[in-house]
Amino acid sequence: MIILDFERVWPSLPYILEGVQVTLAYTSVSLLLGFVWGTLLGLCKVGHIASLRWFAAVYTSLFRGTPLLLQLILIYFATPQLTGYNISIWQAGILTFTLNSGAYISEIIRAGINAVDKGQKEAALSLGMSYPLMMKDIILPQAIRNILPSLVNESIDLLKESALISVIGGSDILRRATIVANDKYLYFEPLIVAGALYYVLVMILTIAAQFLEKKLKTS
Amino acid sequence: MIRLDNISKSFGHHQVLKEVSGRISQGEVLAIIGPSGSGKSTLLRSINLLEIPTSGRVYIDGICINDKKVDIEKIRTKVGMVFQQFNLFPHMTTLENVIYAPIKVKKIPRNEAQKLGKGLLEKVGLGGKFNTYPPHLSGGQKQRAAIARALAMEPEAILFDEPTSALDPEMVKEVLNVMKALAHTGITMVIVTHEMSFAREVADRVWFLDEGQLVEDSPSQVFFAAPQTNRAREFLEKVL
Ligand SMILES: Nc1ncnc2c1ncn2[C@@H]1O[C@H](COP(=O)(O)OP(=O)(O)O)[C@@H](O)[C@H]1O
Ligand SMILES: [Mg+2]
Question: Does ipTM come in above 0.85?
């Protein structure tokens, strides 16, 4: 008979809970930077400069075409080898997640820009606006508004994928749960706690996304 | 003020404009009419280079604007445009729509732009709609706001591309009235339209376009009373 022993996990709960902060820090910082990077890449994709369009396309293809875990390990272990710089776990995580989510977000941004009515661009140009001004104040605000739900989905993906940081020793939710597990020779309970924490975080984001979507529809 | 010199435009193998030449003087009201697909919009959009002609030249105030060295953004501030689909910026209030370009492009002070914008919106009958977002305006109100937005740049000319074609019938008049009030006040107006009685009443001159060719260029009285070409005569018989 299988006996579940959550009693032995309770004392370690605060320790696992502290991982929530870490997970959220990786997710939010990478999302913010990835959004900036993805916007720049998205602008390259819809722009007139062929070399930048090409760069953004190849970049996206590479980051979407290889495992995130490989990217993370590569950046963490190869950076010291190639540059001599001793990259921290935090830096490697943020860099990898930013570069990776930037690729996905650039696709979302590109689609968002293309979905803005063509007449908006013509109206802006006919008023004498420059291309950068038009993008910044006319096209991007409308594009980003339309893609907010997709961006929330991307943040959900990122939140779950951030668990990979535990592989190189980042002390996030998953890592702390496995430490507790190894410590107490008890696997199911701490991992279930970790799973529940991720699930609650994802649900909060999902509900926020639904709320946002409803709000955008009515306004 | 506007001179077209042998404008041709092709999309792929499809030649949409065939060596169109003509002049439009300062303050003149010109109606461009013709069957759908004859190239009216393409011609109009060539005047502010929303379409780049395949060959030929566009002169505005004597400057050839399809010269690479010309600052096209500056030229566009002199030639406003009003679209069939209004193309108001949906994320800005009506007043912001009107004052955005004067502030950001012409760099006039915000309070001055606000005074100008409010005055213009009042003039087109939208005095109570300063803070309304475009999705909450009716079609006629949107188009009047779009006219105010074009006027706020104080352009020398405004291009109208079928400004009433997307409107419910009961709203056509309010927009035409705003345009009538604007006509012969010094601003050049180039109007692509299917509103023949409006063209007859307001336009000084008519260009009749058919299959990409400028078939007839006549004073509007002459054009509507006795068109000079068979093609124009046939067209008028069909639409009048
Ligand atoms: N961007 C474009 N690409 C390809 N064909 C076009 C484009 N714009 C217009 N055309 C074609 O050019 C012709 C003239 O179009 P248009 O100038 O809009 O005519 P009108 O305004 O007189 O109805 C049409 O046959 C149309 O299909
Ligand atoms: Mg047209």
Answer: yes
